[in-house]
Amino acid sequence: MTEVNVKKGLDGVVVDETTISKVMPEINSLVYRGYPVQDLAENCNFEEVTYLLWNGDLPNKTQLEEFSKAERGLRPISANLKSMITSLNKKCHPMDSIRTAVSYLGAEDSNHWDNEPGEKKQRALNLLAKIPTMIAADFRTKKGQDIIDPDPSLGFSENFFKMCFGEVPAPEVVKAFDVSLILYAEHSFNASTFTTRVITSTMSDIYSAVVGGIGALKGPLHGGANEQVMHMMKEIDNPAKAEEWMLTALKEKRKIMGFGHRVYKKGDSRVPTMKKYAQKMADVTGQSKWMQMYDGLEKIMVAEKNIHPNLDFPAGPAYYMMGFEIDFFTPVFVMSRITGWSAHIIEQAENNRLIRPLSAYNGQGERTVKPLAERG
Ligand code: COA
User: What's the 255 CA to ligand 1 centre distance in angstroms?
Assistant: First the structure.
C-alpha cells in the first residue's frame, strides 16, 4: 500500500474558507464576523448576534425590530407537531425529541427543495423561532405538564423561560442564559457544523442538514458534554471532595467531561465570560457549591495535565442553577447553534462543491469470490 499521511479526525486539516467566525487559539480569541465574542456577549442580545451571523453585520434599531417581529411571529407550532411531541416515548432523550421534531417540521414544509439562499434564510428563521417552542413543549410534556404557547410580547430568552416554567425569572438569570446562547452560537468547523455542511454539499435541504447537526451535537465529545459535566458534579456532590475525586479519576485514566478541546490547547476563549455568568447564577440562587467544585476540579486538571475547561464546564452548572433538567442542556445548545449551522448551510450552498474526501484502504488484498457451496 502507498504511504499516505492520514489526518485522523481531520486534525489540523483546513477544508474550506469561511467568513462567519475565526477561532484564534494562539491568542485565545473567537470572533463572529470580526467581533470578539466576549464583547458581543456583554453588549448585545442573542437576536442581534443571530442577525450578525446571518447578515454579516450588526443590525440597526429598525433592522432589529423587523427581525425580532418576524421571529416572534413564527414561534407557534402546528397542532400536529404538538401532538407528535406529546406522543413520543416519555423516556426518550430530549435530543431525540428535538431531532425528530425538526424532521417532522421538514415534512410539514412541502416546498423545502427550494434551494435559493433567500429561501434558506427564511427557513432558518422559522427553525430559530420554532425550535425553542418544540424544546419547551417536550420539557413540559416530560414533566406531565400542559404545554405553554409562545408569547410574542417577550424576547427570545424570556419567552423560552416562560414556555418552560410559566414565568420569566429575574433579569440577571435571563441575561446569563442569553450570554450562554451567544457563546454557543458559532464555532467554525466543529463536528456538528461540518456535518451540516457535508449534508448541504449534496444539495439536500436545510431540515436534513439540521437533523444531522443535532445528531452530531448529541455526542458527549461535542455538545453532550454540558450534561455530562453536571452528572459528574452531582456524582462528586461535595466541593471538599473535588480535588481528590479528580486525582483518582485521572489515575483511572477517565475522560473528564468539560475539559480539553481539539483547537484550544491553552484555554477556551468563551470560558471566562461563561464562568462569570455561572458565578452570578450561584450568587442569585445561593447555590455556591457548584462553583467551588468548579475551582477544585480545574485546579487539579490544569496542574496535573495542563488541560483547561471548555465552554461546557461553566455552562452545565449555570443551566442547572437556572432550573433546567440536565438532559435539556444539549437541546438548549441546539436552540443557540441553529444560528451558526444556518449561516454555514447558506455559505456552503452559495459556493458549493460536494464534500467527498478519500480514505486509505488497509483491508484485505484482492481475492476471488467462491460459489456458496465451495465456502468452508
Ligand atoms: N479528560 C482526560 N484526558 C483528556 C481530556 C479530558 N477531557 N481531553 C484530552 N485529554 C488527554 C487525552 O487523553 C490525551 O492524552 P494522551 O496523550 O495521554 O493520550 C491528550 O489529552 C490529548 O488529547 P486528544 O485526545 O488528542 O485531544 P482531542 O483534540 O482529540 O480531544 C476532545 C478533544 C474535546 C475530544 C477531548 O478533550 C475530550 O474528550 N474532552 C471531553 C469532552 C468534552 O468536554 N467535549 C466538549 C468539547 S467543546
Answer: 7
Instruction: Measure the CA–CA gap between 274 and 211, rounded to whole angstroms.
Output: 27
* Gap from CA of 136 to ligand 1 centroid (Å): 32
C-alpha span between 374 and 376 (Å, rounded): 6
CATH number for the domain formed by residue range(s) 225-322: 1.10.230.10
Indicate the domain borders of the chain: 21-221+326-350, 225-322
Query: What's the pLDDT score for residue 2?
Result: 59
Please tell me if the CB atom of residue 276 comes closer than 6 angstroms to any atom of ligand 1: no
- The enclosing H or E element of 72 equals helix 61-73
CATH hierarchy code of domain 21-221+326-350: 1.10.580.10
Report residue 301 as a C-alpha cell: 486538571
pLDDT tens digits for range 194-207:
999 999 999 999 99
Average pLDDT over all residues of the chain: 96
List the catalytic residues. Answer: 222, 261, 312
Among 101-115, 128-142, 214-228, 275-289, where is mean pLDDT lowest? 101-115
Please report, for residues 28, 53, 176, 242, the alpha-carbon distance to residue 206 in angstroms, rounded to integers and kept in the order given.
Answer: 32, 17, 30, 43
* C-alpha 226 – ligand 1 centre gap (Å): 15
By alpha-carbon position, which residue is closest to atom 29 of ligand 1?
262
β partners of residue 309: 259
Give the pLDDT mean for 196-225: 97
Pocket test for ligand 1, best of 183, 232, 261 (most atoms within 8 A of CB): 261
Model pLDDT, residue 220: 96
Quote the CA–CA distance of 300 and 293 in Å, as a whole number.
Answer: 11
Atom 22 (ligand 1) nearest CA? 260
